[in-house]
Amino acid sequence: MHLTPDQIVFFRWGPVHLNATIVFTWVLIALLAALSWLLTRRLAGPEEPRSRWQNAVEVIVEATRGHIRALCPAGGDSYLPFIGTLFLFIASASLLEIVPGWHAPTASLSTTAALAISVGVAVPVFGVLSQGFAAYFRHYLRPSAIMLPLHLLSETSRNLALAVRLFGNIMSGAMIAGMLLAIAPFFFPVPMQMLALLTGFIQAYIFALLATVYIAAAVQRGQEG
Amino acid sequence: MDKVIMIGVASIVMAAFCMAIGSIGSALGEAKAIAQALAAIAQQPDEASTISRTLLIGLAMIESIAIYCFVIAIVLIFANPFWNYVVAKPGG
Fold this sequence. Notes:
The complex is a heterodimer.
Chain A: E1 9-13, E2 16-19, H1 20-39, H2 52-71, H3 80-95, H4 109-131, H5 133-138, H6 148-183, H7 189-224
Antiparallel strand pairs in A: 1-2
Chain B: H1 2-43, H2 48-78, H3 81-88
């Protein structure tokens, strides 16, 4: 049994190891890119009748936009591409568990750490874009300069929690299914697999939601004072 | 040889304790949060979407403590650095 897909190595070339995490991330990226290109190739205008695929994609975009607007009304649609990509990547990574032989790349700490780092970079970038460099970083010195280490610690630990939470949830789902396959095969792994699907989807939602909350906090604290 | 057995026993027992004790607090906290959220939704059904969104954020925060325990238990059992050190050393 493999703890993470990092341990399944397809190909070694000197120090370069091509493991399952990288391969399945590439597959997922190609799949999402190809699907997006195919579905948005011929978009209908406001008056024309829509295809069912366009309707389906519009539902996803509208729902994501609605959630972002409710949390951060000031931002408009500028966070939609980032948050939407995070959600779609994590959700489809767990959803593809139903395909036999698929290993979700989010079951590896490397992938989730990369996602958390991209959130950790995006938060100050959006904050600086909305308030300016000095105004954003002055927040770290409030209420006094003694608070600087605590601010830094809280930002680091929340990004760490973001990575470990996603990793722990997805990895435990795959692992419980693997253990039950060894103990009681045939029936019991199926409900646990369904539970893992549900957990994966909720975790995708929570990851995107927390990223939005962090960005909204960084953007809105400048407007409050 | 004794050292190997001791580290193995300690890792397994401590992984079990870590999971058992660590999940109690998280479970109680989540139960309390969900109960409060349900009561709030029953009183104000119009605010259900806002309440459930805040509830999910809170649950994610509470749950992360249990997940830290889980990750530590997994590390103790499957990727224990002390175990690897003792096994790799010639003669135990």
